[in-house]
Fold:
Amino acid sequence: MDDCIFCKIIRGEIPADKLYEDEHAIVIRDINPQAPFHFLAIPRKHYPGVHDIPPPLMGEVFGGVMNAYCKALEACGLVQNGYRLVANSGEIAGQTVPHLHIHVLGGRELSWPPG
Ligand code: 5GP
Ligand code: ZN
Structure:
């Protein structure tokens, strides 16, 4: 997608602090962190949400995202201390970038329920 900010990051057109990348996904630090650790696991292919992934590709795309954030978790030592995954989907959930991404938050107490 030409005007998608995450596609631009994936194409290298705008900079990002990358923690991990492979052929399926990238993991970058969020530009506006909400916790000491706040990064975004993003599939290279543009899908607005999980529900937009064609079912035959679901395992490959989502598996790639899961694998990517696990690599970043290991690098940041978050596995031992715990973390939270968040996927905002659509306006009601506050999604601001319409390219599927999983927030990974950690490094502080995380209250529940979220707002
Ligand atoms: P959403 O609101 O869609 O759930 O999450 C989008 C996230 O992307 C926000 O937390 C926001 O701070 C982050 N973000 C938006 N633009 C950029 C950018 O250019 N670079 C990085 N690293 N993060 C961004
Ligand atoms: Zn995109």
